[in-house]
User: What shape does this take?
Amino acid sequence: MSGYDRALSIFSPDGHIFQVEYALEAVKRGTCAVGIKGTDCVVVGCERRSTLKLQDPRITPSKISTIDSHVVLSFAGLNADSRILIEKARVEAQSHKLTLEDPVSIDYLTRYVAGVQQRYTQSGGVRPFGVSTLIAGFDPRDTQPKLYQTEPSGIYSAWSAQAIGRNSKTVREFLEKNYSKEQPPASEQECVKLTVKALLEVVQTGAKNIEITVVRPHSKIGTLSSEDIGKYVDEIEQEKQQELEKKKKKRGEN
Amino acid sequence: MDITLGIRLKDSVILATSKAVTRGISILKADDDKTRQLSEHSLMAFSGEAGDTVQFAEYIQANIQLYAIRENYELSPQAVSSFVRQELAKSIRSRKPFQVNVLLAGYDTHNNKTELHQIDYLGTKVELPYAAHGYSGFYTFSLLDRHYRPEMTLQEGLELLKLCVEELDRRMPVDFKGVLVKVVDKDGCRDLEEW
Amino acid sequence: MGSRRYDSRTTIFSPEGRLYQVEYALESISHAGTAIGIMAKDGIVLAAERKVTSKLLEQGSSSEKLYKLNDNITVAVAGLTADAEILINTARVYAQNYLKTYNEEIPVEILVRYLSDVKQGYTQHGGLRPFGASFIYAGYDNRYGYQLFTSNPSGNYSGWKAISVGANTSAAQTLLQMDYKDEITLEEGIELALKTLSKTTDASALTAERVEFSTITKLDSGKVVQKIFKPQEIETLLNKTGVTKKEEDE
Assistant: This one.
């Protein structure tokens, strides 16, 4: 390396902006977040930061934040950085509503967040945000689920199902295998179950380290309790057990 | 000549606002809503300079809603009234002040109590059992002084409001096209179509 | 020294996506005097150990580890006192501003988040080093009752039932985890705090001039009382809990 990664965000001779690439590494070190579109809902789930024994669950901040009554944002990466983005997004959502009467569309909000992230890759004296986000919700007066991702570089993209953060590759591969664009999860339950299942690929400790939020049309956002998530986890574990036994039996028969 | 009237009852607060929009000697509109809901349990009625009123009310509404989204928690009606007062107090000291007077009705879910605040464009804030801005007070305070009791039910409150509106109909020099009535209680804010 | 290239500016990611300046600030705090916070069902205890450098140093009555932020939040500091005092001053101003705007005391988390956002800013904007201070906040508000938070130079914050920051924090945290019970009383909390501090201190024994101590409780009238203990009161407490020089004598 020849100094092109030292000044904040400038091009190196071979065309890299190192600070942005390194910011992506910070994202990969953050806890995993997953978003999945159903037919009439979007589910966002994430790995909760390790809840240590003496942590107070009432007041430990959540990794899924409401931006307005119809849209949520989850992230992977530096927690403190994410708060800044979330705050900016919330203010923009209210300000948009104040000037245009309509609440923000999910697409607009994503472009806004990505725009802020882009600005921090090109302005003097700042480092990029070490954060990727998943933005999920429904446009006002619409029943089409929306799910977007933004990255430290300011790139944004739309997804049917996506994972970011630590081990996101494993989760994405799981989703590619188990999610069909033609036949998305038909019910909310199925969608939540798939999200939990995807997270269980990388979360070892089960329900207490998982957070799930469901967004439905017309500003209905619901967060699942730890017990509710526990039920899904048990169900999935049971199915896995049964499958294992079936396999064993087959082997036995042969 | 806009009418804004508020009556605080035992379990609810009534806000009544005139439905007419007037400009000069003309009535432009007969179904106006001079209120904005700020949060689940707080409602603001406003009167004053046309343009300023809605601009101010929606600005306040956006800020209170931003607080609710940020904190996942509703500001108490007392805190809302303080915030509004501060905004008007800042405004009167600015280059171009808002000319807006407001009534704030709220239900404090923490202490289970009803609240009615009156704030004028100078930033004067008072908590009151019943309140009005503009001319409407001249015609209704005598009735309210005579008949108001703090432990009144919503039904009784509406009957008292009816007396007030009848008096206004009789005495006001212009037609204000009746009043729009809203109620705040423990279940939130709602319109009363028939009252 | 793979890290050398990336540790000279705070606002820069290393190739592994780390912020070395922030990590070094955390490292500096791990040498600072320990601070402990314990939430009981009827109050919160904050205890801190200060490093006494010389016998000749005048120990003024002013505390250097414990500060009142407003009428219902006390904070304990580990790290650079000078850095901390800047943050404490901004926190006090912010808390009074909130009180002026809403005519209500600021909820604990809002103040914690505000200070954490200030700290975050110093990890992202150019030419500045992060604040070298971690805090333990003990406070009361109507939404959640008693609350205990920590924040560190990265701008992260989290809520706890019992927590320690500063030197020997991992040892202290293990001790707290062993002895903390959910239904602990303030009385027991005080004892646990002093015992933990005495077991993790680098000095031979705890003495009143090494310890700063405070409690926060709510009276039945609804008034929140913050008590920062005077040296004599700490002396009495130490004797009562039996963690003082006695151990040496034994």
The radius of gyration of chain B is 16 Å. The mean pLDDT of chain B is 97.
